[in-house]
């Protein structure tokens, strides 16, 4: 039986040695075998570039990779180490930049560009016998779109730390947290949280909020209120270089949540909002009408928040009631509809295996809960399997974990049944046997995602 995050914290303490495995970019042995391959590149109709690598001994399988948020530069693998291994195993790799003229939140063009890349690869390098789509972070949301629409063109999908709850949920819960931080620590910026004018304004806002959080961390009252905002943010309580906090060590849980914030989390979230607003045509999110007491009560961090409020001698109900009463941000219905159309996925058309670290500061593992619920509601849950790695950090997988996930998915495609290929025990055994940086698959059940309207 899968364990809840609260009960599983204790089990994670025993797995810390595995969990502190080196990050993705350094996850394979130093001695990598260089595989003879041919490199291809081209330009798509919208100006997007695409690249591909095809090994001399191609197995006929094309892996089309959807990259994450950031520079609109073509990529065809999660890392150099993963690329080297997959080429050595005979896979061809391809991927596009997405439309370079659009927002970094490239959901308006990315799926189209990825399908066009598959076509361009076939016309240039030879038609594959099978196609598997792979997505990382925001690219995991692109990959979810591909997996929804790709029946007949795509055989299966492997997702890595995917932003599968979609853009609407992302913007909603992040705004809930930013609003709480501004209300408690930086009220002058309450009018500045949405409709950001440019990237520099977004970065400046992130700096002011981060500075206010640093000051608040110095007092019991500040720490209690940081924990409340962190609950709204679905913020993990296990930070880099730390052992997992004990289930009832609420002070340590808040400290580790603060560590994520101190390490620059808001400098990613706030400018990211600017990019999403540019893509959607305005602010898609509202605080007006949100019950912030109810929102906390549904969070698995609620016990932590209550304990820290009690220790600080603060009235939690008064604070959440004040947040509810003063919430006055109204989003654009048009922007919300645009973002929902471009960035929310509610069904599956092909088998997908989705991998996620249990402590992901940028795309909380709770997103997997929201996605699975939507896939169940669509009647497509037979196609979806999710697996979890006990480690801190966004997309912090070893090469072994990624390759094992791909091999497990391929077994599902060959046999037509998942059987036990996606269980943590099976994936752990498969990954460990590869000797490519270790593995830490764990039995895990993500909690409900806070902020879903």
From TrEMBL:
It comes from the Bacteria. InterPro entries: AB_hydrolase_fold, TAT_signal. GO terms for molecular function: hydrolase activity. This is Alpha/beta hydrolase. Keywords: Hydrolase, Signal. Residues 1-26 form the signal peptide.
């Amino acid at each position: 039986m899968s364990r809840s995050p609260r009960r599983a914290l204790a089990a994670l303490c025993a797995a810390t040695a595995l969990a502190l495995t080196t990050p993705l970019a350094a996850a394979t042995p130093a001695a990598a075998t260089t595989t003879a391959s041919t490199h291809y590149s081209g330009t798509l109709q919208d100006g997007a570039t695409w690249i591909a690598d095809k090994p001399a001994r191609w197995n006929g399988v094309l892996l089309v990779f959807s990259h994450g948020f950031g520079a609109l530069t073509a990529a065809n693998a999660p890392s150099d180490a993963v690329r080297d291994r997959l080429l050595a195993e005979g896979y061809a790799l391809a991927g596009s930049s997405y439309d370079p003229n659009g927002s970094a939140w490239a959901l308006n063009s990315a799926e189209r560009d990825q399908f066009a890349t598959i076509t361009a690869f076939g016309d240039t390098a030879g038609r594959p016998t099978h196609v598997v789509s792979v997505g990382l972070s925001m690219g995991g949301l692109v990959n979810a779109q591909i997996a929804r629409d790709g029946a007949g063109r795509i055989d299966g999908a492997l997702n890595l730390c995917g932003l599968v709850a979609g853009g609407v949920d992302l913007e909603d819960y992040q705004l809930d947290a930013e609003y709480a931080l501004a209300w408690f620590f930086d009220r002058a910026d309450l009018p500045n949280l949405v409709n950001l004018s440019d990237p520099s304004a977004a970065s400046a806002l992130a700096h002011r909020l981060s500075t206010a959080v640093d000051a608040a961390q110095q007092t019991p009252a500040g720490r209690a209120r940081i924990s409340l905002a962190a609950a709204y943010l679905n913020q993990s309580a296990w930070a880099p270089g730390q052992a997992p906090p004990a289930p009832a060590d609420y002070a340590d849980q808040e400290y580790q949540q603060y560590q994520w914030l101190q390490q620059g989390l808001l400098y990613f979230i706030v400018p990211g909002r600017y990019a999403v607003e540019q893509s959607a045509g305005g602010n898609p999110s509202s605080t007006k009408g949100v019950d912030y007491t109810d929102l906390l009560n549904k969070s698995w961090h609620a016990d932590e928040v209550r304990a820290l409020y009690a220790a600080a001698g603060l009235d939690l109900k008064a604070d959440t009631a004040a947040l509810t009463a003063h919430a006055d941000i109204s989003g654009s219905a048009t922007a919300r509809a645009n973002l929902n159309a471009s960035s929310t996925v509610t069904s599956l058309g092909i088998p997908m295996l989705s991998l996620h670290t249990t402590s992901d500061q940028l795309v909380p593992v709770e997103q997997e809960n929201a996605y699975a619920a939507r896939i169940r509601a669509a009647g497509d849950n037979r196609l979806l399997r999710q697996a979890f790695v006990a480690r801190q950090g966004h997309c912090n997988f070893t090469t072994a974990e990624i390759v094992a996930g791909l091999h497990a998915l391929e077994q599902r495609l060959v046999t037509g049944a998942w059987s036990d290929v996606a269980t943590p025990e099976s994936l752990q055994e498969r990954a460990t046997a590869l000797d490519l940086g270790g593995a830490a698959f764990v039995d895990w059940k993500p909690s409900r995602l806070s902020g879903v309207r």
